[in-house]
Amino acid sequence: MTTRRVSELPKPTEAELAILGVLWDRGSGTVRDVHEALYAHDGGGYTTALKLMQVMHAKGLVERDDSQRAHVFRAVVSKERTQNRFLSDIVERVFDGSASQLVLHALGSQSASREELKEIRQLLNRLDRESK
Amino acid sequence: MTTRRVSELPKPTEAELAILGVLWDRGSGTVRDVHEALYAHDGGGYTTALKLMQVMHAKGLVERDDSQRAHVFRAVVSKERTQNRFLSDIVERVFDGSASQLVLHALGSQSASREELKEIRQLLNRLDRESK
DNA sequence: CATGCTGTACGAAGTCATTCGTTGAGGGGT
DNA sequence: ACCCCTCAACGAATGACTTCGTACAGCATG
């Protein structure tokens, strides 16, 4: 038994999320890539990044191509899926399950540009039409 | 020096958030209240709730009226403030700092009723007028 | 071949969140 | 006065996340 169901991938921790961010941006990356993108500038150790990525691999969050000496990692979970995962979590735990409450808060307190407001309005229109 | 700046209250943990939820709902509550609301039904121990609330008090997340034998707890942080706190966090860490990206995701993947959509549209209109 | 560089593997330590068992204090009822 | 119930206090155990030190392998250069 070596397989693992995708739906049961654990929620990435804080440090893991930062690493996933780098991998999503780059498509893939070595430990060195990640270390330089995240840890090098504040003195974080190389092995710290390595260990985290090993743990992530053990959890199934990333896959690894070890045909090269410097293993190349790639995110298994998509950025969108992970965003939705975190979103559901926070809606559930902090907004009493109401996504629109979250939206109202987000629009009210965080700033959005006119361009972004327009984009949101368009989506809103589409949702309105669809739920007719 | 016994005072503590509000802005430096720590982010509530998962378990603490659940307890805050009960206190926000009820306005205030004893350990027993919280235990029965959250832990009793799945066999969670009374002292677990107590300990968590003691920790929360030490952190300054709740205040305590110990004039009664059963101490009465009350949330120090408001629900709205905490919601925004979590929102900023997730926007920063998962949505590359873009609140509108989060809104688009939330609207797209989570369901919202027509009533809620209307409410959102009204806020959108107001924001549009204000940013004129 | 020795040295140095770059890489992985592994385990230990520290911190934090969570859970629970035990203890002792305080009252109320008998 | 004595027993029982409810409660707060405290410390211990566990488990997860993070960080880092050390060890070792492969490879190139002198």
Structural summary, described in words:
The structure is a homodimer of 132-residue chains. Chain A has helices spanning 14-26, 31-39, 46-59, 79-94, 99-109, 114-130; strands at 62-65, 72-75. By secondary structure, chain A is mainly α. The first copy, chain A, has 2 domains: 12-75, Winged helix-like DNA-binding domain superfamily/Winged helix DNA-binding domain (Arc Repressor Mutant, subunit A, Orthogonal Bundle); 79-130, no CATH class. The longest helix of chain A has 17 residues, at 114-130. Chain A is elongated, with a radius of gyration of 19 Å. The mean pLDDT of chain A is 90. At the A-B interface, α1, α4, α5 and α6 of A face α1, α4, α5 and α6 of B. Chain A binds a DNA duplex (30 and 30 nucleotides) through residues 13-16, 30-32, 44-48, 50-52, 54-55, 66, 69-71.
Strand order of the largest sheet of chain A: 1-2
Class from helix and strand fractions of chain A: mainly alpha
Order of helices and strands of chain A: HHHEEHHH
Give the low-confidence spans of chain A.
none
The count of strands of chain A amounts to: 2
First-last Cα distance of chain A? 47 Å
Tell me the radius of gyration of chain A: 19 Å
The name of the CATH architecture of the largest domain in chain A is: Orthogonal Bundle
The number of distinct structural domains of chain A comes to 2
Q: What is the top-level CATH class of the largest domain in chain A?
A: Mainly Alpha
Name the CATH homologous superfamily of the largest domain in chain A: Winged helix-like DNA-binding domain superfamily/Winged helix DNA-binding domain
Question: Number of helical segments of chain A?
Answer: 6
Could you give a short account of the major beta sheet of chain A?
2 strands, antiparallel
Give the overall silhouette of chain A: elongated
Largest interface, counted with CB-CB under 8 A?
A-B, 43 and 43 residues
